[in-house]
Amino acid sequence: MTTEEETKPEEHSIFIGGKPFMNYVTGVVIQFKNKAKEVTIKARGKFISKGVDVAEVARRKFLEDKNVSIKNISIGSEEFENKEGKMVNVSIIEITLINN
Amino acid sequence: MTTEEETKPEEHSIFIGGKPFMNYVTGVVIQFKNKAKEVTIKARGKFISKGVDVAEVARRKFLEDKNVSIKNISIGSEEFENKEGKMVNVSIIEITLINN
Prior knowledge:
alpha+beta; four-stranded mixed sheet; 2 helices
């Protein structure tokens, strides 16, 4: 049994990485089928394009029966230390979808 | 001499493509130096990550002296016919920066 805290909307996040594209689309769709009110897709660097594709395909192809729309999109930068010990910046995007 | 119509904010757009990254950053910065109130960065498909990077680098590294912030970010899909005559979708992003 899940507690109320475990089902807070802000905890429904999908982090985009190197797995097959449809894994992430399915992840978003399943969370909405499981009654999530909001799902946030998060991506960094080169995965940002994939993150936008995931949001669009999930919304347009798989959630047509639900009334899912884009609640918010934010972009920003994160600093991290690379292998050579140099501080570098990477861009990030967060796309929050909401089931109205 | 430019007419009022030619200097409407919505006409200050930068389309992201295959040119070197700094070309686009410079393009954004020059438009703000030339007194543009708003500049919109537009990118499709695999160029979306690059578009977000351009917005972040222009804003954080080159427009620190100005008060440039993100006014709006939108994502969507466009349908087009590929070389094989098949209709395919591509994701798009538009990031509007504003000089406050």
